[in-house]
Amino acid sequence: MFAFLPQIILLAAHLLAATAHGQACGCSSVVVPVDVNTLIAKDPNDPLGGLESNATALRRLNAKYDIFGVFCAPREKTAQSTDVIQLLTEEFQNQSYTAYACDRGLSTLAIDLVGVGKSTRPANASDVQYVTNGAAMSQLARHLKSASILPGVKPFNQVIGVGHSAGSVALIAGAVADAEHSPFDGLVLTSQLSFQPGQLGAPPVVSARDDTPIRWGSLEPNYVTLDIRAPFYPADTTLFSPRMLVYDNFTKDVAPISVIPGISISSLTANYTGPVAKLAGVLDQAICVGTGRCDDLAKLTALERVLWPKAKSFQVVLTEGGHCMDLDFLADKAFSVFVKLVNQFAGLH
């Protein structure tokens, strides 16, 4: 229940990802402008983000946002690396998934969501809802298929969305809104299971400007942050470096208050027609440990499958790690599943 506020994606973290794999891969920072023209909830506390609201509860959002990201591709070009790209909504940092994927021939674009990191942070936090980011990610995916992200990089034929936690919910919001018109050729949704409205307890969020005035003193109070990070990790402290907690707390970011009730978007039916996979760590203290949800994989899969009735395929995979799958020593086990799924969805293996 604590895990749905975005992790920070600072330039330093991107640079670590860019250098982790030496000369095998090339990485570049990019900024991609997107136009978001969509209906969002007038009340940012709407648990379904306006996706099941009547017209009187909605307002039009028409805005341009700059999406910051880091594009990584193998230096040795192959059909695999030039035809398919993974759009990572919240980069897997520390033990970098961008590096892991690049070393296995896959290109990635790891982005900051609207309101997070180095992407546009609107002055009005209520503009930043899951529907906002869902629309932005869909526009970005269409851009990747129709235009060059960098000189010498041709448009990609397929875009696979790989989301983490809040990033997964943003992809779900886009899938609900776009249905069969989604530009994504597959969705890998990690550290995220469906929750009914009101099912989650209130996570320990505080106003970001009160938490760290030197960084966020100018933000409106509806931009919040977490003051407890431990639930992102396995309870067994031997499974991660104790330094990670210090680093994680130091580099945490903000999110709009709407991300908390908006988690309920995950309970909506998505008429998306591509393949879908959900990954959960059995040591995830937010969604698995103590909940019983991850004890029976067949039952969990059946329950989650109901919400994706038109998906080409659907599966739930349980991995060994915690909520932030890249921050513990079990990261490679999850990463290998990601690569397998992306290759499967793209028809590469």
TrEMBL record:
Top-level lineage group: Eukaryota
Residue span(s) of domain AB hydrolase-1: 100-327
Keywords: Signal
Residues spanning the signal sequence: 1-22
Annotated coiled-coil segments of the chain: none
Keyword Hydrolase carried by entry: no
Record-given protein name: AB hydrolase-1 domain-containing protein
